[in-house]
Amino acid sequence: RVAGSGCGYSRQMLTLQAPEDIDRHITLDVATGQPVVIDALGPVVVNSDGTLSRITNWERMEESERDVAKRRISKRNVERLRAFRDKGELKQSLVSALAAASSDGAASGDAGGGGAEGRNASGFRFSIDRGGTFTDVYALCPGEAVPRCVKLLSVDPANYPDAPREGIRRVLEAATGVPHPRGERLNSSRIEWIRMGTTVATNALLERDGARTALLVSKGFADVLHIGSQARPDIFDLRVRCPGVLYEAVVEVDERVVLAKSEPPGEESAARRGLRRVRGETGEQVLIEREPDLDALRGKLAALRASGVEAVAVVLMHAYTYRQHEEAVAALAREVGFAQVTTSSSTLPMVKLVPRGYTATADAYLTPHIKAYLASFVAGFDDDISKVEISFMQSDGGLAPADSFCGFRAVLSGPAGGYIGYAKTAHTPGGPPVIGFDMGGTSTDVSRYAGSVEQVFEARLAGVTIQAPQLDIKTVAAGGGSRFFFREGRLAVGPQSVRAHPGPVCYRKGGQLATTDANLLLGRIRPEHFPRIFGPDEDQPLDVEGTRAAFEAMLSGEVHPFYEATSPAGAPPRRMSVEQLAHGFLEVANEAMCRPIREMTQMRGHDAAAHVLASFGGAGGQHACAVARSLGMTRVYVHRHASILSAVGIALADVVVEKQEAAALTLGEPGAAERVSVRHAALAAAVEEQLAAQGFAPPLLRTDRFLNLRYAGTDTAIMVSEPAAGG
């Protein structure tokens, strides 16, 4: 796993003096190209007029602020120095010298530039979090020291077809003063990059709205994914539910590969039976009992394609070490006309057929949905969009180019941005660990950061197990849009969401009562400080009167009639005010959000009260104090960009490439450690080559190495990271 730093930075983190305080800078005129001595008090800043300056409060900045500032200054310095050189105002030697001095070993000027020909290196930079209810846009605009922020509904078909593109349009129009009509393709010539975290894959998985998918599996194993691992989430549950599957059809492939060491004793040897023995990628010997019958398979695949199936997942036995059969079947499927073909050996080259099959089918099911969204997003721009660097947030907290963004790495694309955002801004080295509390419109995501990113390598979402590196984020269906219900005398919140359309009652779209309505009624949301984006003309505030009327209707139509019918004879029925009803719903929602935090702290041996609560998300600030009080926490951090911190985190994220391959070694055997080192080096070279193609120089790369280890005689592996030098 290699991360390329230097492409993620935030403009507001750079604490340069305001223009009117420029006299406080130490400046040197370098327009003549004469060599100068640079002081070591922070990085050198190349100003637009050819002078040099430094950051006067460098010694008071936090280390995280310094890192971000150095990355940003380095890139901007090189851009300005090259501009001076191109104009003949600066010597090439001075460009190189100052570029090295300004980077201070942190980042080169080409970091994150990607080196794409024709890319606008000083254009608009957009970081976008497309959530289930709201879309947040964090924009760094040329010549502006303060970022622009836009929040808009993710779904508003009456006004725009795509929320991220609409946010970009609004920023371009406001910053340039040039009209960008909604009905026309956007001019992308001034855009340098677009980074996005999206819930497209998550929603498709939750709503089972992915591509029509078929499973191609070794003959005799048609039901292997339906049977699953026989894991019981609740061992006392009398009603055992089989895991759901994402495919609608199964085709058995008549082929067979077996491990040589699994030959039953006493049987005729493989050589006598005419079986071919091959050394697999893991070093294990495999026997090819039967090659795939491609001629028989062709007709079955053609019938599937004719029925409307558009994606296939190829999952064959022992493909983790011998992938040739999967590749042959995949080539035939593409020839037949399937647009999405996923092989388990390329997605997850690991032992164990079931998790490998789950992950491959999830990728085949979700990737077409992602590609379709990307195509619709790009279609709203002009032809220059091909020169813009577009990347997406992955579940592991790293960015990936749009052309390599795939389904099984996208399920936590949205929440991952918030994790990176608070990890880089709320935690200080040596300080207390931080709990991230990201309350959005549809759900709440909680996570923990104690100085290093906490990941899991297998997670279950919406009944589907996916084996891939993911940030350890727990999600609960309680957000600003969680719907209120009164059921047999009980107050219930969610899991159903009113979503962005029609939304809560206060959105003026004929919605239902939700958490946002309760906060509005109790004065925790001030309509005068909330965007006026509601109503048919998108210019009206939240509807306070309508919200109160809806709560009164629930009281008179459901709550009070129930109390009257169930009160003891002779006793007056219970009465509630609309404020008491709203407060009761909020207490239910708060408790639902505390449960996953206790799971990440107390159930793992950590004291919840020893943590800091980092609250963000559009609704986080309305509930943070109540949640912290319930958990015994005494400190809450609220970021200045709390409502769009996920978008800020995407801007701060690194580009990450992750590769893995299977191995069958006994660690204590002679030469095993050397073989592991050689294979690690080969994997590192492969991912570094990919990052180099995106413009990252070796000094900017950090490599994390892992081994999946298990004790002899067991089948449960533990992912172990490489210890620090000397560890």
From TrEMBL:
InterPro entries xrefs: Hydant_A_N, Hydantoinase_A, Oxoprolinase-like
Organism whose genome encodes this protein: Emiliania huxleyi
Domain Hydantoinase/oxoprolinase N-terminal intervals: 125-337
A Pfam family this chain is assigned to: Hydant_A_N
The name this protein goes by in its record: 5-oxoprolinase
GO-annotated biological processes: glutathione metabolic process
GO cellular component terms given for this protein: cytosol
Superkingdom of origin: Eukaryota
All residue ranges annotated as the Hydantoinase A/oxoprolinase domain in the record: 356-658
An annotated Gene Ontology molecular function: 5-oxoprolinase (ATP-hydrolyzing) activity
